[in-house]
Design brief:
Order of helices and strands: HHH
Low-confidence stretches: none
Distance between the termini: 32 Å
Structural class: mainly alpha
Radius of gyration: 14 Å
Number of helices: 3
Number of strands: 0
Mean pLDDT: 85
């Protein structure tokens, strides 16, 4: 099972690669359904990251 940091990096890489390769996302500047799904996966992975909150001091 990948670490939370690895999962976040993999999700970001997948989203960025898709955005560069997809005609609709790249040229039309309109996110397709796959792009929205990959962005949701990235956001979920980011939220799952442990927080290092400096405000709690």
């Amino acid at each position: 099972m990948p670490s939370p940091e690895d999962a976040l990096q993999e999700a970001r890489t997948a989203y960025e690669e898709h955005a560069r390769a997809c005609r609709q996302c790249h040229f039309d500047r309109s996110p397709c359904a796959v792009s929205k799904l990959l962005l949701r996966a990235y956001n979920n992975a980011r939220r799952a990251q442990p927080r290092t909150d400096s405000a709690s001091r």
